Amino acid sequence: MAQHSWGTTFSGRSPATLSEPTAGHRLLSLDIVLALLALAGGLRVLYLAAPAPALPAEAANVAHAYALGHLTPFTDAGGAGVSPFGWWQLSAYTMVSDAFGRSATALAAVRETMLITALIGAVLLWVLARRLGLTRWASAAAVLLLAASPLALGLQRLVVVEHLAAVWALGALVLVTRPDARVRHDILAAVCLLAAVLTSPLALLFLPAAGWLLVRRAPVRAALVAVLLNLGLGIAFGPAAGLLRPHLAAASRPSVADWVALDPAWAVLSTVALVAALAVTSLRPFAVSGLLLVATLAIPGVPHTAVLALLLPVTPLLLAGVVQAVTRQRTPSHRWEAGRRGTGFALAAVVLVAMVAAGWVYGYPALRPSTDRGGPLSDAQEWLRANASGSRVLVDDGAWAELAKAGWPTGMLVAPAACAVTCPPAEWAVFADDATDLRHRYPALEAAFDDAGATAVFGTGDGRVTVSRLGLPPADPAAPSESSARAHAGEALQASARITSTPDAAAALRAGHVDPRLIATIAALAALQPVRVAAFPEVPGEDPAGQPRRRVLLTGGEDGAAAFYTGQRDLFRPSSVVRTAGGVLVTYPLFAPPGLLVPFSSPRR
């Protein structure tokens, strides 16, 4: 009798009956699953590049996946946790699918793995729901909640190894609930549970559910699985601990409150489902594991995002199961009581749908889907390629992966972990935000930034990426201000009758935002021919860093202007002189020598 208790709670049919659907029913189930997968996949592709909530540890996981796939060493800055088996899974997919070669960024390549993981998890959730006796429509509702919840969309796009662990755990539970399970299925279940725990230690909390179900079905098989699992864990956490033992990431934002804000209905309904499922025989093992996961949220240092990643597929299953169990209660004999009960169920369903809809109306806009698949790090990488190619660069974990994917030699990339004692010499630094935490963790980084200056800034807010030049000579306090010298010289240049500027170009000259080499050469060119300045185009990223504009677009007398600049030598030689449809575009390299404008005098009028 115990063998069938979990399979008969909802439907009243035995597992054998459930495992023999007609061809029509199979086709209907297949259609439902495919429709749900299309919905889940489409929404996840749309929100794959959503900028927030962001996870600091995600960059390290991406970098480890790239490093393993390209057989290059990498040590993260710490705090991201350790999951060698999880990193191997991420790397294996990117190698087989050539995700790094196809994707615009390294982050997008590894997030593609998370998308595939979410789809596999949705299929496993459907199978598990059906094996627990849920109807097609109750199973579809569980998968729909997982597929379309804004919280799920925001969470499952992040590169978190717990998503992989959740799939392994679901696979084990699917095997455990198989009606005609044989010994090989139990061995595979033990392997899946071991893989889940090696991916994330939090997956240990799925063991009560798996063990409970196994004991219900066959106590001897449960003992076999326990022996195999303990043997595997003993090896993984003993002799092979250096290669396989996982560690949780440090606690950081996003917190539970950040995630719940995307879908408040999910939090309310999940809490109700976790408690109510204790009263349903077939759901009780899952409710116990779910409540244990919830309890870990109260433990200091446990990352909330990791816990929610494992809890995410559990609560929709419990909610659908509880609703079905309530609606399947015996109907009262009196017609008026039956009508009243039916009205109550209908009202409850309306309230349930309204709660979910209200949460989603807020949650979807909060995710803000982005069409920019590159982002600030990609812009910084392009800037470095154009201005500092071949240089040694001090980078954070996120910049390491993006620059390595772009072809930057990994031997020329210095990760913060290399600054434990002293930083290797580097010419440039690329860090997201202001790297304050990393500087506190690695004091040698502070010394590296003592003589640094921001050269380009990309993005805004928490997503800002700063490119800094290291080893700049210290500023002379007695020297005149370069900005005021540029403004004075620009004012004099603007006053010349031989120079015509557009309003934007004139404003840049008067504000001191123009490179002194451009000011000096435009003055010299004006002595030879009239000059028409169309614009001082910004080099992307340099204006926010306070760098003077080092490009000019000249119109009129273009042959003479092009010949003049092509013939410049030494300090005044441009990096490029290009004839465009709008005129002659002249670009100077970074960092004009100081003091160029001291002897400067305005051109003759």
In words, what does this structure look like?
- This protein has 605 residues and is an alpha/beta fold.
- The chain has helices at 5-8, 15-18, 23-46, 58-69, 84-97, 99-102, 106-131, 136-148, 150-156, 161-176, 183-199, 207-217, 219-236, 241-244, 256-260, 264-276, 284-296, 304-311, 314-327, 335-367, 376-387, 397-405, 436-441, 443-448, 482-494, 503-510, 516-526, 558-566; strands at residues 393-395, 413-414, 428-432, 453-458, 465-469, 499-501, 531-535, 551-555, 576-580, 583-587.
- The strands form two sheets. The chain has a five-stranded mixed β-sheet with strand order 2-1-3-5-4, with helices on one face.
- Strand 1, helix 22 (397-405) and strand 2 (413-414) form a beta-alpha-beta unit.
- The radius of gyration is 31 Å and the shape is elongated.
Question: What keyword list fits this structure?
Answer:
605 residues; alpha/beta; five-stranded mixed β-sheet; 28 helices; 10 strands; disordered N terminus
Mean pLDDT: 87
% residues in beta strands: 5-15%
Work out the helicity level. Answer: 55-70%
Instruction: Using the alpha-carbon principal axes, give the shape.
Output: elongated
Helix/strand-derived category reads: alpha/beta
Helical segment tally? Answer: 28
Number of strands: 10
**Cα Rg:** 31 Å
Sheet bearing the most strands, described?
5 strands, mixed
Give start-end ranges of low-pLDDT stretches.
1-19
